[in-house]
Amino acid sequence: MYAVEPREYLAPVTLDDALSAIAGSDRVNGSTLGVLAGGQSLVPLLRSRQHKVDILVDLNRIAELGGIEPAPDAQDRSLRLGAMVRYRELADSSDVRERFTALSDAALSVGDVQVRNRGTLGGSLAFADTTADVPAAVAALRGDVILASRDRRRRMPVDDFIRSARITALEPGELIAEVLLPEPTARSGSAYTKFGITTNGRPVVGVAAAVALDDAGTCMDASVVVSGLRTGPWRATTAQARLVGGRLDPEAVARIAQAAAAEAPVHTDLRGSAEYRRALIATYLRRAVLSAAVRASGGGK
Ligand SMILES: Cc1cc2nc3c(=O)[nH]c(=O)nc-3n(C[C@H](O)[C@H](O)[C@H](O)COP(=O)(O)OP(=O)(O)OC[C@H]3O[C@@H](n4cnc5c(N)ncnc54)[C@H](O)[C@@H]3O)c2cc1C
What we know:
Blueprint: E1 8-10, H1 15-21, E2 27-28, E3 31-36, H2 42-47, E4 55-58, E5 68-70, E6 78-82, H3 87-92, H4 94-99, H5 101-109, H6 113-118, H7 121-127, H8 134-140, E7 144-148, E8 153-157, H9 158-161, E9 162-164, E10 167-168, E11 175-182, E12 188-196, E13 203-213, E14 219-227, E15 234-235, H10 237-243, H11 250-263, H12 274-296
Parallel strand pairs: 1-4, 3-4
Antiparallel strand pairs: 2-3, 5-6, 6-11, 7-8, 7-11, 9-10, 12-13, 13-14, 14-15
Helix pairs in contact: 5-8, 10-11, 11-12
Bound molecules: flavin-adenine dinucleotide.
């Protein structure tokens, strides 16, 4: 099956030009507008004709949408990642690997080498698929997205940005421009673990966890987010609250993971039943928290 080719193809080299091209609406003069990042979700949709685009705006030549660097505002001790940063760059970056390990774990777990070479951070967040790995990691690391349109910039936590699978806060005329990850405190660690059944490894369930410990090894902060659910990334708030204040020993974490699995908004589909997903969440949540704890105490970075 061949894709219906867009009538017009635009490849701006500045963000301002891209924002002008998409300004106002997702339809321009009655034509449907599409935005191309890594193309790893959009192109298959075009090829299968589930999606039709008349005007395609390609973000690949916009240098200012790339880069992994300290946030430009010196007050803001965050790492800034451009929306067009590829999974491969996330996995290769020593900044990401050492301080935001859950994100490098998640990026490294996506698909195969071709998908990781093309797929982008912004594309994964904007598409917000049920089976996306990276959004859960960004949420667990308490990342914010910066949304840009011709007239304004706005910043919001990824928790608020993804409202449900495939539903985000993006408005017509807006792009994700960048992601900001707050600097972790001392003795922090994070991890992403997942279970996938297909060769390209999309998660049936994945879990991202970030923890901070005090000098005695007591958990001072915990952030735990599950991927693979139709709700979009699901924050396990009860588990987070129960982790804080205790030591992260395997038995205690296993009990908390079991309780989180019981309350998770699981669903049944061809890839697994609701009960199977609960069992996976119990296992993978325990593994993610324990490996984040090992990293927080200085091991396994
Ligand atoms: C074989 C295969 C295996 C895969 N396996 C996995 C996996 O294991 N785990 C996983 O998480 N994913 C997997 N994926 C999906 C992959 O992660 C996609 O890359 C991702 O979903 C979309 O990112 P992209 O950069 O390719 O975006 P595109 O496909 O270019 O765009 C996707 C959507 O997001 C919009 N968009 C893109 N960038 C922006 C932006 N900056 N601002 C606003 N809107 C934007 C586009 O308009 C489009 O609607 C797989 C894909 C393939 C083909």
